[in-house]
Amino acid sequence: MRVLVVGSGGREHALCRAIAASPMLTRLYCAPGNPGIAAVAECVDIGVLDIPTLVGFAQDNQMDLVVPGPEAPLVAGITDAMEAAGIPCCGPTRAAAQLEGSKSFTKEICDAASIPTALWERFDDADQARAFVRHRGAPIVVKADGLAAGKGVVIATTEDEAVAAIDAMMDRKIFGDAGAAVVLEECLTGDEVSLFALCDGEDAVILGSARDHKRVGDGDTGPNTGGMGAYSPVPNFPPALEQACLEAIIRPALKHMAHLGTPFRGILFAGLMLTEEGAKLIEFNVRFGDPECQALLSRMQSDLLPALLAACDGELGDFDVRLNDSAAVAVVMAARGYPEAPERGSTIRGLDAAAARPGVSVFHAGTEAGPDGSVLAAGGRVLTVCGTAPDLRQARDLAYAAVQDIVWPEGFCRRDIAADAA
Ligand code: AMP
Ligand code: GLY
């Protein structure tokens, strides 16, 4: 099979590695890829949102499957365009990608399908939103309704903070159109977990679960990021609970999406809060998480490629996707200044030594090749260093030992990834 992965992050590097391991693969491409991905796939210089060029490339090179990594091309309709050209694409259509693209769309699905979630209300009038905050009080969660690159959520501990967030999103439009409407939500408390299912429009299989560390600083301090580390398995989220959430959250959502005429195919990421009343849905994403993907795929026992194809063909049936019994800890190394203003251009050394440790994988994200073949930092999240071992404590020790091998004074990472669980 000839496969095109779309994206350039650590998630796509992990996807490429997993797909490259399949005996079914004959040729692997990645657009645009990165210097790490170049070791396992042929990188093609096409941007993830340049859908006409991606379709042309896939046609000219007879792709049997396209696997988009990030949400942006899915929300922009890459699956619709590939399918119109007769090329299977393992991701939702633009209509189904609304599960990530619009918070209120997801909340309406939750209400219609009785999926447990935080109480909510949508406002497209800022004065009414402010009045609701004054009426309900704090804590309260303010969310831009549209896609705001993971930054559109404010957990307001006071009414003033909530009102300030509404001012910024709706009056000052700091997220542009994404903040034209806001969703106000009940504030849930509990441990968070990311559950991943592969879906074929009707059926779903669990890929696994992981816990992400979203804030930039140790002890969950500082601004939210796309994820500074992840681990899998999650001790207080055993397989029985995964299955219960498949039945209570994922299957009802799939059924309702099919009922709406927009069946969901691809990877569905349920962000859950384990509250005292049970697991509740915080949000859906329509793709793998990054860095959760790197941790999960490091534990993948099954051949991922036939499963991705079966999801496109609506033939997941009781397809078995299995993780092994090991534990994985993924530590993100970011450039100094991330997430606000990451420094670019510094040189990273020691990557080979880190990757040479048994059980360690180093995934590239924001890297670029220097003129002399060196590896340079070229973005915010730059590397994911993943350790796989029999248990979380050993996986964590291994990941941090490998981080120590990497010589990059201009980079940093959290030191407490998986610390509680290990
Ligand atoms: P989201 O962009 O929807 O993933 O939200 C980002 C983060 O905000 C989540 O990972 C949670 O930590 C937090 N969050 C979102 N909604 C709620 C809620 N209703 N109650 C408490 N925390 C929330
Ligand atoms: N790590 C969370 C995400 O990918 O959205």
Question: What can you see in these coordinates?
Answer:
There is one protein chain. The chain is of the alpha+beta class. Helix content is 30%, strand content 28%. The chain contains 13 helices and 22 strands. Strands 9, 10, 13, 14, 15, 16, 18, 21 and 22 form a 9-stranded antiparallel beta sheet that branches. It has a 4-stranded parallel beta sheet with strand order 3-2-1-4. A 4-stranded antiparallel beta sheet has the order 5-8-6-7, sandwiched between helices. The longest helix has 21 residues, at 239-259. The mean pLDDT is 96. The site of adenosine monophosphate has 14 residues, from β7 and β15.
What key phrases describe this protein's structure?
globular; alpha+beta; binds glycine; binds adenosine monophosphate; four-stranded parallel sheet; 422 residues; single chain
**Secondary-structure class:** alpha+beta
Supply the number of helical segments: 13
Mean of pLDDT: 96
What can be said about the biggest beta sheet? 9 strands, antiparallel
Q: What fraction of residues sit in β-strands?
A: 25-35%
Helix percentage: 25-40%
**Terminal Cα separation, in Å?**
39 Å
Number of strands: 22
- Rg, rounded, reads 21 Å
Low-confidence stretches: none
Each distinct ligand: adenosine monophosphate, glycine
Shape: globular
